[in-house]
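Supplementary Note 3. Input sequence used for the single-chain structure prediction.
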Amino acid sequence: MTNTHESLLTVLAEQIEPHKKILVGFSGGLDSTVLLHLLVRLRAQYQQQNYQQQNCEPMILRAIHIHHGLNSKADLWVEHCRQICVDWQVDFRTEKVSLDIRRNGVEAAARDARYQSFQRELQQGEILATAQHLDDQAETFLLALKRGSGPAGLSSMPARMPFAGTTLIRPLLNVSRAELEEYAQTQKLQWVEDDSNQDDRYDRNFLRLNIMPLFNQRWPHFPQAVSRSASLCGEQEQLLDELLQESLDSLITAEGSISIPPLENSSEAKRNALLRRWLSQCGVKMPAREQLQRIWSEVALARQDAEPRFRLGQYDIRRYRQQLWLLPQYQDLAGTILAWDLQKSLTLPDGLGTLLCSKEHGMTVRKPTSHEQAAIRFGVQGNISIVGRQHSRHSKKLWQELGVAPWLRERTPLLYYNEKLIAALGVFITKEGQNLPDDEGISVQWDKITEPVLHLV
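The predicted structure, written as discrete structure tokens, is reproduced below.
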């Protein structure tokens, strides 16, 4: 790629076509300042074309700055970015985020928080543009290599990818940092310098400060070579996606779970590839090989009477009816007791919805006596006698026979009068809760909110 500024503008125009509504991730640093400046220039070109041709759609630019709260100068950076956007007539947004560093450290937490904010801010028909460049790509590749990643990880950052129902583009991915610096100095741009970028305790900074200069000194075109390797890995993954898609489609159920028996007949390599693609389609970060092995051995191949569970990031993987299911990490509701005035609606915990008594809808049970207090509990154990069955059954067997998945058994509201189980709402009524034909009874309606499984994206 040449160093001329016009070529930068031409490549940018090719990258963003045909989109005209763009949200820019704007940190105020060198990279994002150059990207925003180029887009402002491109917008001016489109305005001139629109003036001349009367048929060119105008470009709408917006910028969002994420305040991570990690640096004492963060408030100053916000004001710098705001002023730049005022000067360049770009709609400006800022969002302050809180970081959860317990799982993956500061760098990963900051990145996750940024992209969550981007997702919230994106508007209908708008794409997201971020300013990663050629040197960033080389660092990302080396970090993936350090983690022992396969081709998917080594493919690093794509120039264009689906994101939040729209598209994320990285139009500077083939431009070096040196080219960006030369452009910024020629255009007399001002940008902020994050002093934490000099802290080589962070992996990316360690590579940037200590390793990449040695590589570049020995092999001046090292970043370009790494970028080609990343592209080749990406092509290999794309080919595997195409070759495995038909098999994957045959394994995934309408509910988004994946069938276990066909995987048992596959090689370990093919099984792992299919499991990775299933998780990827569910929007889950790729697991390590060791995690995939544990999912298979501890969940898929667990003994038949077990209810296995594997925690993967913010999700649980569970087995039911010879299928693997990906679920949110639900709140443990065991031991929860909610007193309920039947004259009022009751809000259930953990997004389960509300209960109310209705004359027209719901499950009809007997009214409580004057000495009985209604309450909602979760997680029943022991023998249960239900309406429609002659003999009592242990709760575990009963749930199984009624086809209720283990995670739903733990989240089904149980209506009690004092210590008597009256009903598992939406599932069964006990003989203690049966309403006699001549009695008025009450109908309990459960308005649910959350879905029991994650659907494919």
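The longest helix spans residues 222-251. The chain is about 40% helix and 20% strand.
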